Amino acid sequence: MLDPLLFGEIDPPQRLLMGPGPVNAHPRVLRAMSADLLGQFDPEMTGYMNQVMALYRPVFGTQNRWTMLIDGTARAAIEASLVSLIQPGETALVINFGRFGLLLQEILLRIGARFETVDAPWGEVVPAEAIRAAAKRVQPRLICTVHGDTSTTMAQPLDDIGVIAREVGALVYVDATATLGGMEIAADRWGADVITGGLQKCLGGPSGSAPITVSDAAAQAIFARRHDEKGIRAANAVDGVGPRIPSNYFDLAMIMDYWSEKRLNHHTEATTMLYGARECARVALGEGLDARFRRHQAAGAAMSAGLRAMGLTLFGDDAHRMANVTGVYIPQGVDGEAVRAMMREQFEIEIGTAFGPLIGKIWRLGAMGYNAMKHKVLITLAALEACLAAQGVALPLGAAVPAALAAWDEVMAA
Ligand SMILES: Cc1ncc(COP(=O)(O)O)c(C=O)c1O
């Protein structure tokens, strides 16, 4: 008999994760993660680290030497970036249009940095001219923004961000957790100094490893704060002139030294996550980034068209929707949580709830990474239609799936 204290073997239900992330991981990624472990400085392992650097450069749209992984969920890379880029008392400008703009502010607050915000209401993005005016007024050391904010499903245009930052001598930080691998990320063209991501959205992996890219200008500023910890510093190590970065784990100067030929023994790289991150990038580049962006665009267009065909109203500004997450108003009189429960219990499909002012008002439906597939969008729409009908909503039965199919095909044919 099984000892009850051992519980059972992990055997989760086969849920289709169609929320704002995490999503189901690509099987190739899961297979890569079952490979045997290596020692941290084994030449095979450091070889894999170098491959990861090479693989993520095109994913970020950059030539940046410093392109690597932070061990931790996406938030770990956000925190590593901010704690390494800005000093207590320096001023940042936060482009704020949702929950994750609030997260940037929360981390800056803990660092002891000053910050000002340039805001848009939830469901909109911040116009470039408003960012320029705020940057001129605030004269920040750092401009921080989210690319796609899953809380509002909006994608902030970033074409002008680098130009604006150079006008005031600022560096730029971008949280692209939710869009990396699904919408174009153009670190070099945008002139963004540091961009971070996560695996559990468009890259189709599990959460727990966060890709990051750092420009030479940002690396120079970070290395100026280099203070290697006593137990691992080389005899000839020279400290930077700037103040010590007030986090050991998230000290990008030491992390970059670990990812360089110095191989500073900072942390033990999360081998299994690195295998997964490496495979995520191989899957993305193997598909081709343009094809992948188009697939996400088709999935988003199909989801939107299907929801509209049901008679539902989408949340937010049509012109700035993320390709991969769609917000939709919960119809009047419908218990949103009862529908989510029925989706999960009867159809094994997860859709997302919402945050802050949108709690109880919208659902968020995602189609990204391995789940940005035609059949998964169609199955989700058909299931939602059945759940709404069960709640007594009068809706044009059978309209959503053909509308979604047509929208998918239109994007793919364009
Ligand atoms: C835009 C954005 N930033 C950051 C995060 C935080 O990611 P994690 O939960 O992996 O730390 C998320 C997760 O939903 C996100 O959507």
Automatic annotation (TrEMBL):
Q: Which SUPFAM superfamilies match?
A: PLP-dependent transferases
Enzyme Commission no: 2.6.1.-
Q: Which Pfam families match?
A: Aminotran_5
In alphabetical order, the GO MF annotations are: transaminase activity
Listed A to Z, the keywords are: Aminotransferase, Pyridoxal phosphate, Transferase
Ranges where the Aminotransferase class V domain occurs? 44-352
Q: Which cofactor does it need?
A: pyridoxal 5'-phosphate
InterPro entries the record matches:
Aminotrans_V_dom, PyrdxlP-dep_Trfase, PyrdxlP-dep_Trfase_major, PyrdxlP-dep_Trfase_small, SP_NH2Trfase/AEP_transaminase
**Catalytic class of the enzyme:** transferase
Q: Which family would the database say this protein is a member of?
A: Belongs to the class-V pyridoxal-phosphate-dependent aminotransferase family.
Q: What is the recorded name of this protein? A: (S)-ureidoglycine-glyoxylate aminotransferase
The top of its lineage is: Bacteria, Pseudomonadati, Pseudomonadota, Alphaproteobacteria, Sphingomonadales
